[in-house]
Amino acid sequence: MEKYAVSACLCGTNCRYDGKNKRCASIESFARENGALRICPECMVMRPPHLPSEITADGRVIGQDGRDVTEIFREGARRTLQLCQKHGITRVILKEKSPSCGVHQIYDGTFTGTLVEGRGIAAALLEENGIEIISEDDFLEGRVF
Ligand code: SF4
């Protein structure tokens, strides 16, 4: 039996860098009906609100102030993976474009609103460890696992 997790911000948790959420009613309903675990890799290591971060072309994560926060994001990803493994999670719906949760697209590290193909740090780690990931856009377009 599949067990699901969902990016917490999609379920209305105010865990984004700006202290807000990206609530999506249909994903919130899916999460409730399927008993999905709500996860937020960044909340594992930072308390919102905080500066936004982006992934540079060389794979580092930098804050808007130029600080290298790669290790902080990796730690958040590791803790998220551990939590998912503890709960036997097999499939995850993640918030697109996030430096942690992005599935297909992320911002390019220039803080100019430029998107590039790529995975967030936590999304990549979950996938590397055999957990299926899709974005909220995939879910909304009917590409459900
Ligand atoms: S880390 Fe993921 S779950 Fe947390 S606020 Fe960012 S996109 Fe949402």
Task: Write a structural description.
By secondary structure, the chain is of the alpha/beta class. The protein has one domain (4-140). It contains four helices and eight strands, in the order E-H-E-E-E-H-E-E-E-H-E-H. It has helices at residues 25-33, 70-86, 121-128, 136-140, and strands at residues 4-7, 37-39, 53-55, 61-63, 91-94, 105-107, 115-117, 132-135. It has a four-stranded parallel beta sheet with strand order 2-1-5-8. The chain has a two-stranded antiparallel ribbon with strand order 3-4. Strand 1 (4-7), helix 1 (25-33) and strand 2 form a beta-alpha-beta unit. Helix 2 (70-86) crosses helix 3 (121-128). The chain is globular and about 45 Å long. It starts with a strand and ends in a 5-residue tail after the last helix. Bound molecules: iron/sulfur cluster. The site of iron/sulfur cluster has 13 residues, from loops.
* Secondary-structure class: alpha/beta
Total helical elements: 4
- What is the multimeric organization of the chains shown? single chain
Sheet having the most strands: 4 strands, parallel
Write a brief caption for the model.
By secondary structure, the chain is of the alpha/beta class. It has helices at 25-33, 70-86, 121-128, 136-140, and strands at residues 4-7, 37-39, 53-55, 61-63, 91-94, 105-107, 115-117, 132-135. The protein has one domain (4-140).
Topology diagram in text:
Layout: E1 4-7, H1 25-33, E2 37-39, E3 53-55, E4 61-63, H2 70-86, E5 91-94, E6 105-107, E7 115-117, H3 121-128, E8 132-135, H4 136-140
Q: What keyword list fits this structure?
A:
single chain, 145 residues, four-stranded parallel sheet, two-stranded antiparallel ribbon, 4 helices, 8 strands, globular, binds iron/sulfur cluster
